[in-house]
Every structure is written in structure tokens, then in C-alpha cells.
């Protein structure tokens, strides 16, 4: 007899794997969990982490899920252990390699302490590779979430699980890389801004309709974009401009497949990605068979109720874009009515992503797009470009993992730029696009979708170079001007011999903290710290300096060397 509770309990389950196809192991484990009475409601991002405790083994992939279940704690444990065994998990070396590891972190607001099970999990607070994903499945807003508040209180820190994670990062497994699974790889999207080039194989697109409708011209266009440094080619066969003719899935596929097949066969496409712009699940399913790596849906599943479930089965990334109505109604007055466009877009994206996650599409495969030009007027579009950090923050209040996924910005040649610049010809809006793309990159956009790849690729490179230099010198000045004991963080310095001596490791901890704070003007993602090339510095031998100024000087020199890429 299955042991169940009379009511559902909310649980958090951690996932880990470092043997075999790690992401496939996760997907298989989640499928088994769903079939076993565990309804997954939220997914964390994916983190690639260095092994802890036993270090001579492959890197781990870590994540977590939040779920509802009627299974009792013991039955839940039994179910997870059965999944582990069926997937090849053996006793082996403690903390050693394993194809799958499933741990119950929390079970509602219950505390369990038996010979076989302890909840909350006893080692949560010492493991950054557990705490990082755990923060993802929570939101900052716990006002109406008693269970999440209990989980935070269990940490023993006034700042809850978020503070516990920060304090754990110097321990085993503290070096983590947030990744997006795509094209058989785990790509770290935080280190650069990806350029997505538009390839419209339509006769009626607003900017370049009719130019690339045959296979040869589409292939030539693709080669040109690849030569200009594109990262993703986004192929669209159906115009989504206002009042455009709506094609059937069959009509769309008849345009798409010949071009997609030809682009996939290009030698130059190696290492690049192909996205297909569609709101049909039938089209998404078919193009995945022909080599598409990403599905880009302007409707976030609103125009096809099967889209989320179908893409979940494809196991490829999904661009969820905000739009109200459909292309024929999106600019109606009711669809342009917002109280706060950034907050409203964030809330509506969260709702759609929540539906996608319930359909089995995990947050770690998501890319979000605020939908510039779709059910927004000029002023609202500008508010969004200027408010990307605010949108992330609003998303993070409810679904923190979603606030940490890649953000795509599509402003290229759009009507609002023409209105601002009095330029009715869409093809003449490239200069305006470059300016808007630059603003988006500084606002934290991870992917920019553009027609003119060369000019926008250059703009992105300049934007990426500028904040790194700016932040480096801000940090140098910060350290050289410090006149406080122990860098004003209250960090313990056990190796200090007097008030004026402190280890370089303590200074590094402070540096990492300040890099994260200073990077807030670039992105809220503390993982971007590694962009500064400081990893080698963090592994440097321990040094004891005679004064804070000497520490600052050493750090300044290290920073300059590690970022002097020119």
C-alpha cells in the first residue's frame, strides 16, 4: 500500500550528476518523478560545479526542483532511491561519482529525524552547490509563502538561504558556473552577449520581406552573417508584423525546411546555433528533427496550447516572449494598457513560464524576451529597454530562477525607432538599432536579435569592453582608498598577526564581494565575476602583507594583469 498524506506538501529536491550524459540523467529522473506522484512546479537553473570532498572526479551538474506531493516523507525517500538505483546508482565511494543523486532538502514545514532520513537535509548549509539552486526555486517575496519563510528561517541566518549561500561560497564546491544546455553542450551565457541574426524567408516581413525567400539567397545571407560574427541564426517563415497573413503549419514548414536543411549543412555553421521563429508546436517538433537548436515563440505558448508540452519533449531551449493578443490584435488599445509596463511584463512572463514549467519545460532551458514592439507603444518600448534590470528584479520576486536565465532583446529596425528618428524606411534604422542595442547590453541583455550583424557585433564588443575596464578601475580606486580595518566586511581573518596584517585570501573574499556589487550596474548575476579573469588570482599562494595599502597594491596589479586583454 502506498503511504500518502491526506494533503499535498511542498517539497524541494536537489539533483546532482557527474557520470554519463548529465543533463539527460536529470531529464530522465524528472520524468520518473512526475510519474511517481511528484508534481514539479519550479526548476532551478543548471550549475556546473567542481567536486567537493572527493576532488579526483568529473565536475558535477547540480540543480533543484520545487514540487507538490502526497507521498509521505519515507515514501518519497523510497521513491527517489528507486529512481537512483534504476538509473545505475550504486553504493560506491561516499561523495564519489554517480549518475544521479536525489536528496530531499525540505518537506513542507516539517522536521524529520530518523535513522534513515533527516529533513531539512543536514548538509544543506555547507554546500554552495545545493544552496545556489535552492535560492533559484524560491522568490525574494515570502510575504504570502509560509513554507518558503520556514525554509529561510531554517538556515539560522537573518538573511535566510541567500545569506547562507553567500557565506558557503568559500567552502568545498564553491566555484559554480551557471549554464544553458544547447546543441549537446553546456554553454555559459554570462561571459558574453550573443548576437542573433535575423533570417526572414518571408515575402511580407516589415524590413526585408521578399529578399531571402529562395534557398540560394537565404544561404548567401546566412554565410554573410556567419562571416560577420553571428552566434545564432534565427530563421522565420511567418511574418508577425501587425495584420500579416497567418500561415498554416504546413505552409510555414514548406518555406522553412528547405532553408533550414541548407543552413544546417553549411561548414561555417560549426559552433553556431540555429533558432526557428514559430508559434506552432507542430512546426517546432519538425524543425527540431532537421537540426534546429532553439524554438523562438513570440506568443509564449498563447497561440498554441500544446507548445510548452511539445518543446519540453524536444529538450531544446525555448524563447518565451511577452505578447498580448496575437499579431492582428496586439496593438489594440486594451493590449497597450499597463499600470507599470515593466512590472506588468515581468508578472505576465512569470505566469507563462509557470505554465511552461508545469508542462515539464524546465527553467534551465528558458530564454525570456520582454517583447519589444509587441503590444507596446513607443514610450513603453523605451521604458522596457531602460528597465531590463527592473524587469529581472520583478521576475525574481516570484521566480528567481527565471530572473537568472538569458534575456533576449529584439529592437532591430522596429517602428518605435522610426518614430523617434522620423525614419519611415525600416531598412534605414540600423544606426538607431545600434544605439538601442548598446543600451540593452548595458542593461543586462544576454542576446540581441538584429538584422545588421556586423554593426551590432561591433557595438556589443565595445559595450562588453567598456564596463569591464570601468569596473576594474573603480575597484582599484576602491581598494587604494580604503581606510578601514579588515575591509569593513566583518570577515574573520584567523591568519592576521595584528591589526594591520591580513591574509591575501581575506582580501580576495572582499574583492569578490565588491566585484559582485560593482557589477550590479551591468547585471545582477554574481556569476559574471569570472569575466574579470580573477580565477587564477583566487588560486594564488597565500601571502601576508604588512598593510592594507600593500594588499590593495598587489590586488590592483593582479587585476590589471588579468584584464589586460588588449
From TrEMBL:
<keyword id="KW-0418">Kinase</keyword>
<keyword id="KW-0460">Magnesium</keyword>
<keyword id="KW-0289">Folate biosynthesis</keyword>
<comment type="similarity">
    <text>In the C-terminal section; belongs to the DHPS family.</text>
</comment>
<keyword id="KW-0479">Metal-binding</keyword>
<dbReference type="InterPro" id="IPR000489">
    <property type="entry name" value="Pterin-binding_dom"/>
</dbReference>
<dbReference type="Pfam" id="PF01288">
    <property type="entry name" value="HPPK"/>
</dbReference>
<keyword id="KW-0547">Nucleotide-binding</keyword>
<dbReference type="Pfam" id="PF00809">
    <property type="entry name" value="Pterin_bind"/>
</dbReference>
<dbReference type="Pfam" id="PF00180">
    <property type="entry name" value="Iso_dh"/>
</dbReference>
<dbReference type="GO" id="GO:0046654">
    <property type="term" value="P:tetrahydrofolate biosynthetic process"/>
</dbReference>
<comment type="pathway">
    <text>Cofactor biosynthesis; tetrahydrofolate biosynthesis; 7,8-dihydrofolate from 2-amino-4-hydroxy-6-hydroxymethyl-7,8-dihydropteridine diphosphate and 4-aminobenzoate: step 1/2.</text>
</comment>
<dbReference type="InterPro" id="IPR000550">
    <property type="entry name" value="Hppk"/>
</dbReference>
<dbReference type="GO" id="GO:0016301">
    <property type="term" value="F:kinase activity"/>
</dbReference>
<comment type="pathway">
    <text>Cofactor biosynthesis; tetrahydrofolate biosynthesis; 2-amino-4-hydroxy-6-hydroxymethyl-7,8-dihydropteridine diphosphate from 7,8-dihydroneopterin triphosphate: step 4/4.</text>
</comment>
<dbReference type="GO" id="GO:0046872">
    <property type="term" value="F:metal ion binding"/>
</dbReference>
<dbReference type="GO" id="GO:0005524">
    <property type="term" value="F:ATP binding"/>
</dbReference>
<feature type="domain" description="Pterin-binding">
    <location>
        <begin position="193"/>
        <end position="461"/>
    </location>
</feature>
<comment type="similarity">
    <text>Belongs to the isocitrate and isopropylmalate dehydrogenases family.</text>
</comment>
<dbReference type="GO" id="GO:0046656">
    <property type="term" value="P:folic acid biosynthetic process"/>
</dbReference>
<keyword id="KW-0067">ATP-binding</keyword>
<dbReference type="GO" id="GO:0003848">
    <property type="term" value="F:2-amino-4-hydroxy-6-hydroxymethyldihydropteridine diphosphokinase activity"/>
</dbReference>
<dbReference type="InterPro" id="IPR035907">
    <property type="entry name" value="Hppk_sf"/>
</dbReference>
<dbReference type="InterPro" id="IPR024084">
    <property type="entry name" value="IsoPropMal-DH-like_dom"/>
</dbReference>
<protein>
    <submittedName>
        <fullName>Dihydropteroate synthase</fullName>
    </submittedName>
</protein>
<dbReference type="InterPro" id="IPR011005">
    <property type="entry name" value="Dihydropteroate_synth-like_sf"/>
</dbReference>
<dbReference type="InterPro" id="IPR006390">
    <property type="entry name" value="DHP_synth_dom"/>
</dbReference>
<keyword id="KW-0511">Multifunctional enzyme</keyword>
<dbReference type="InterPro" id="IPR045031">
    <property type="entry name" value="DHP_synth-like"/>
</dbReference>
<keyword id="KW-0808">Transferase</keyword>
<dbReference type="GO" id="GO:0004156">
    <property type="term" value="F:dihydropteroate synthase activity"/>
</dbReference>
